Model the fold of this input.
Amino acid sequence: MERLDAAGGAVSFIERATFVKEGNRWLYASGKLVDVDEPDF
Done:
């Protein structure tokens, strides 16, 4: 899968979850929107 280098520290979190890219948005496989600009953790 692609790495979100712009997300910095979020990359390790992303590698542990299942995401899909749709246009310029990243979503969980379940369809939940992932805000890579301001992670909630």
Notes: The first strand starts at residue 19 and ends at 22. The first helix runs from residue 10 to 15. The beta strands are 19-22, 25-28, 33-34. The chain has one helix and three strands.
